[in-house]
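Sequence decides. Consider this:

===
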Amino acid sequence: MSIKFKVGGEFFEPLRNAQCYYVDKTELIYDLVSSENAVTLFTRPRRFGKTLTMSMIESFFDIRRDSKALFEGLKITQYTEFCKEWMNQYPVLFVSFKDAEALRFETAYAKLKTIIADVCKKHDYLETSGNVKRSDKDRFERLIYEKGSDADVQNSLLSLTRMMSAHYGKPVILLIDEYDVPLAKANEEKEKGDRYYAEMLDVIRGIMSTALKSNECLKFGVVTGCLRIAKESIFTGVNNFCSYSVLDNEFSQYFGFTQDEVNELLKAADRENKAEIFKEWYDGYTFGDKSVYCPWDVVSYAAALLNRENAKPKNYWKNTSGNGIIRDFVERTDFSVKGKFETLLNGGTITQTISDELTYDSLHETEDNLWSVLLMTGYLTKADPDDEGSTVCLKIPNVEIASIFQDTVVKYFVDHIDDSVQEKLMAALWNGDETTSSKAISDLLWQTISYMDYHEDYYHAFLTGLFVGRGYEVESNKENGLGRPDIKLTDHVNRRVLIIEAKKSENKAQMDTDCDKALRQIMDKEYSKGLEGYEVICYGIAFYQKSAQVKRLK
């Protein structure tokens, strides 16, 4: 069977029209209507299909479309009478705040006005509708040309739903995707001393509250985000409002891929032999009582395997925004978290009090809040699916997330090393001093977080971090000669090069032998080829836990 994957495919209609592989989550639509919630909030980590879900909902209900062919063969069509009653029967207003972020409030606010203008352009038929009030048309014109006042912006979604309801003679389904992205970015920048967060909160609260509270033109609303904003009162006063987080059983199967869904995907792609790799790297999340994989990762790696059968798994989250939250956490020195980090990174669990109602400006107020946000954003997960209540056993879900933690901890540590220590190490390496180099690297390792299972990649990242920013050209795993040296450090001013090959030893007694293996690899694979005119110094470095042995090629 020939299949294709669309990596990053966030919109339902083009995904289906291109006949790309689609994991069927359409029964969410039936459950959503059956819940009879006036407003539903789904909070999930990034890369778990929130936007695709909202796009699917839009395609199903949108009165301007004929979606029968799009949903043909999907699970929702088994509900025949439901589809007759609901498919393409209601006006839908879909807006995403995902791109309303910037370093300054003024820029983010301008982006938000552009987003609203673009939504207006998609509904420009309202300008000529005979059923729409003149006052709403005037506001619509100001919004579409991005000339609206603050009041116009805050009333924009309310006004649009009112206009659409008047035009169609039916209540409107309102979909607001990634509602809290502007607040998350504002919170990241609030330490600059301005009023960015407070001003953005006022705008988002104004838009949301006017659109969702006592809006007679709504059939129902669906909102997605990472966190449920609590005391900011964004959702306070909304009648029949329900929020579903990673802790809730309801709707838990609709975000992320279940084991059965991944098995079916791998069978369709003829890559069932890679099942254990997928599980180790991308599974492990517990949403409610369901165990799920990250869909972004599964599709990305499956697509890579279709292109190259021996493709290696990699960290796909590393290339997305948002990993700074771990660094913020590591930098907190006022909480006793180091021991808990060590437990998690060594594959253990910790038990914490968790809240699923947080505020971005209070994330750092308590240690419980910090662990809660790591859970809600997907960096930690429930260790026991049966855990209920506010006390939860937490773990790192998989290899991918563990590597993000490790890289962040290493980078934080390297950034805080005294410059004189790094200079001493560099001088020893350039001078061929094996003893001083071994002791310096070992001393530095003892200052880092302890791991039971040190991977070679960890030591590689550690060494690379030590060398970056010292005025040299640092190349990591770049083709040279007949292979790839772990690290190549070039001092162009003094025309000299360090070539380093690192090995992880099984025990301390093995370190000397592993240094010799590393040096032999450097020679056999001709890593120094093409470096004529430079003084080349080659090292084999063996690591065992927090010890390093450095050996120079004589």
